[in-house]
Write a structure and sequence with these properties.
With 445 residues, the chain is of the alpha+beta class. The protein contains eleven helices and twelve strands. Its main location: membrane.
Length: 445
């Protein structure tokens, strides 16, 4: 039925070709498992291989006839969305910062991590914008916030997109791997500025009174979706202190919010989304195998469509209160939320610290580049005086390695260093303007 609850599932599939273990078997198992559920939206992350996406689409999610595989970056975004309802628009917003080119092991810079979305036409809600995202991975939970500045930039850019969608009169549903536990600054920015409700927190408003939970209780009671001892790929993995203490981390979320717009008629309010169920799925091993479906568990939520409250009687008679038509703000479906002073100050300090660190790193890299040039010149001058012929191959290999190092340091220190500094400065200035606006609005009139 049109007013039936919406069921959403999100899963990081860990599907990087040649790197992810047991990828083919796991994607097939994920597809088979998805076929058992009846969802309205499914958001997948790290599904890098198009044939894997096709297999899930054609076998596991036949009931969701509308889908989109998103392209971004050198290796793709790894993001896909599936919908029961017709897709009328789609978009990709690559994040401006996503690690460093020299961090080959991390790999974030080479992929197109982004905020992607589809706009669907729902028979009751009208336009619904469904987001899927995967934020920058490195950083952890300990230490100063500037270590996670790239993820903070991701969170700010994502928040602006979600808030803009609500301001355009759309319901917003967002899912994905945010690589952040609930208490971190990126999630605070998303909660406060985008005003997105966390389905898990709505359904589980009070923390369980369990002082020493088991691994299964950490999943079922605290929503742990990554680095769980129950996951075969986390069992032998070196974990940080937070994951060891809490038997995993809650990194995967389903978020939602109402639109910000005037109601067409005060006696005909907009429906309200409300989370009634939220659970962690795909916690078992793949049937007949000794490994899990992915290195993350899935998260599933059910959102009810509840009737909104009509405007008060005195507001329905516009002239009795306003003397004319009421202002649009009188009938807002959901008021705008703003960043707290604490979050705003901490974010600006973290970004400024990262800016200073980036400038220092860039200077060091450019110094290394200059040293490489000096050494290469010395090698060219000294090459005719090599005492033995067998030294030539070693000499050539050393020259190639030195040239590669110098070129890399030039790119890292000059091109990428300036790019990163400019991106950080853009966000810092945006937050400064935003802070002045809030101060103006809260000041005396």
């Amino acid at each position: 039925m049109a007013d039936s609850p919406l069921r959403i599932l999100t899963l990081n599939c860990w599907g990087l070709k040649y790197v992810a273990k047991n990828r083919v078997e796991r994607i097939r198992a994920i597809s088979n498992e998805l076929a058992k559920f009846d969802h309205d939206f499914v958001a997948l992350q790290e599904i890098w291989v198009f044939s894997d996406y096709e297999h899930v689409r054609d076998n596991g999610l036949k009931r969701l006839p509308h889908s989109k595989f998103f392209y971004s970056g050198a290796l793709g975004s790894g993001l896909a969305l599936f919908s029961r309802f017709p897709i009328i628009a789609a978009s990709v917003h690559p994040y401006s910062l996503n690690g460093q080119p020299i961090d080959v092991g991390g790999g974030d810079w080479f992929v197109g991590k982004a905020a992607v979305s589809i706009i669907v036409s729902h028979p009751v809600l009208g336009q619904v914008q469904v987001f899927n995202t995967h934020l920058y991975a490195k950083g952890g939970e300990d230490g100063p916030e500037y270590n996670r500045a790239h993820r903070l930039v991701n969170a700010w850019e994502f928040s602006k997109l979600a808030r803009q969608a609500a301001e355009l009169g759309r319901y917003v549903i967002a899912a994905g791997d945010f690589n952040s536990i609930p208490s971190t600054l990126p999630m605070a920015v998303i909660r406060e500025y985008a005003d997105l409700s966390d389905a898990w927190a709505v359904v589980h408003p009070m923390p369980p009174s369990i002082s020493s939970p088991s691994a299964m209780e950490a999943v079922t009671e605290f929503g742990v979706s990554a680095d769980s001892p129950l996951n075969s790929y986390s069992a032998g993995k070196p974990l940080g202190p937070y994951a060891r203490q809490f038997l995993g981390k809650r990194l995967d979320y389903i978020l939602y919010r109402q639109p910000i717009r005037p109601l067409q008629r005060p006696d005909d309010p907009l429906p309200v989304l409300h989370a009634t169920e939220c659970a962690v799925r795909f916690t078992d091993l793949v049937p007949g195998r000794t490994f899990s479906f992915s290195d993350h568990f899935a998260v599933e939520a059910t959102l009810e469509l509840r009737p909104g409250k009509p405007a008060p009687e005195d507001l329905r008679d516009a002239h009795s209160v306003w003397g004319s038509a009421p202002p649009a703000s009188a009938y807002l479906a959901a008021p705008a939320s703003e960043l707290s002073t604490e979050s705003l100050t901490t974010a600006m300090q973290a970004l400024a610290a990262c800016y200073r660190f980036t400038r220092q790193r860039a200077r060091k890299e450019l110094t290394i580049f200059a040293l490489c040039i000096i050494i290469l010149v010395a090698l060219v001058v000294g090459s005719p005086y090599l005492p033995h012929a067998w030294i030539n191959p070693i000499f050539i290999l050393f020259t190639i390695a030195l040239s590669w190092l110098g070129t890399t340091m030039l790119y890292e220190g000059f091109l990428w260093g300036n790019w990163e500094c400019n991106a950080l400065m853009n966000v810092i200035e945006e937050l400064e303007i935003y802070k002045r606006t809030l101060e103006t609005q809260s000041g005396p009139h």
